[in-house]
Design brief:
Layout (H helix, E strand, L loop, with lengths): L1 E3 L4 E5 L7 E5 L5 E6 L4 H16 L9 H6 L1
Length: about 70
């Protein structure tokens, strides 16, 4: 399943256990959110919401330690 927006895309993919999701920028700087398809719908929603917060905070463009970013 893919969810498209003008601001991002969400994709469900099989990820390793323990990985809920992640977000990355494509070659054009467009955010792509990957959510683990093995999670329940509720867990997928929470994972996508978490990744959307990274986009909203522009976490790609700061120099913060990843532990600080993920702890926020």
């Amino acid at each position: 399943m893919k969810v498209w927006s003008n601001d991002f895309v969400i994709r469900q993919v099989d990820l390793p256990y323990g990985v809920k999701g992640f977000v990355t920028l494509d070659d054009e700087g467009f955010p792509n959110i990957y959510v683990n398809s093995r999670l329940t719908r509720e867990e997928q929603y929470r994972a996508a919401t978490h990744e959307l917060k990274h986009i909203a905070r522009n976490d790609f463009y700061n120099d913060f330690d990843i532990r600080a970013v993920e702890g926020a």
